[in-house]
Each structure stands twice: as structure tokens, then as C-alpha cells.
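INTERNAL AUDIT FORM
Audit reference: QA-55
Scope: verify that the stored structure record matches its stored sequence.
Auditor: D.O.
Record contents follow.
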Amino acid sequence: MKKRFLALVACASVCVPALLALDSNTNPALKLEPPPKEVQMRDGGFRLGPRTKIFVQLGHQSEDRIAAETLAEEVQDVSGIRLDILGMKAAGKAEDGAIVLARLQDTRVRSFLARNGLRADQVLGQGGYLLFSDHSHLIVAANSGEGLFYGVQTLRQLLRPAGKGLICPAVGIRDWPTLQRTLPGLTQEDQGAIAKSVGHAPRA
């Protein structure tokens, strides 16, 4: 089962970048598939460079590291930059300029996102996520490893080359599955296997 899941993640890694040529029905300035439910465009963007780190919260590393590694591989493939993945205590604070993959059970994360117009309400469920970026923050947050994985797939599509690094436009995104989210290039059976593996992996 683990080998099958890793193969499916690899498939997603190949298919998602190819979708940069597709238009999003949500916002003509973005090309995202599937189109998120809510998108707020802002000024500026978050720049990724050699000093950028990815933080995942301790206690969820076994689940969330899958999403973190998928993101790190994408960044390295596109820019050659290798990002370190670090653990962070729930009560800890990531340094400015870091990418944070967080759980919405963290009240500080929920409050920060709410102040920036992203509500963590019941509609998100287990498969939804919030994504926020500005000049000094890049946060993907969800209630589960499954939601975090889907949020990272959206983030991967947002990244664009900028100088010697990458940039993520400043955005606020809320997204959740209406019935069943469809990842491009994957069958519903394959997608279900991903969700099961991410959502029920052993906790650290």
C-alpha cells in the first residue's frame, strides 16, 4: 500500500506542474486546477530563496512531512533550491520568511488567518484548507493531513520563477471539496488511496 501511495504522489508531482497552462474559472489572474472556491488577490508576494525553510508542526510530522517533501521536491526541480524541512512545536513561532504547514487546531494560526480574512469554519471539513501569503508569510493550514496535502498541490501551482528563486503571489485562498475533489491526472480510486494514506498515517 505504501509503494502504491508513493507512486500516486509521484504521479501528482508530474501532473500538477503541467496544469500551469490551464485557466482557472475562479480568477483569470491565476491558473489553478481544480479552481479554489474562494480567492483573494493581494499586492506583492512571498519570495523563496536559499534561506527559506519549511516548518511542520511536531505531533503531525508523519502525515504532514509527505506534503512538505512534495513541496520541497517541486522547488528543487524548478529552481535548484533545496529547502530544509524542520519540526516546530505547536506553541513555537516560525521565523519570518518561512513556509509553515500548520493544523487549524492551533488557535494562533486560526486567529492569524482570521485577521487576514480567512475563516476556518466547518465548511472546510477534513479535506479543505486555507492558504495565505504576503511578503513575509506563507502558510498552508488544514484540519488534517489530507487537507494539507491538497493545499500544497495548490501552492505548487502558484509558484513562479523570480530571479534566482521563486515567488508565490500574495493571495488568500479558502477551498474545500464539494463532493469529491479531483486531482488532475488521477482516477477517483487513486485519489481515494492518497487521501486514505495521508489522513490515516501514524502520528509522530
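Auditor finding: record pair retrieved intact. Residues 66 and 120 are 23 Å apart (CA to CA).
Action required: none
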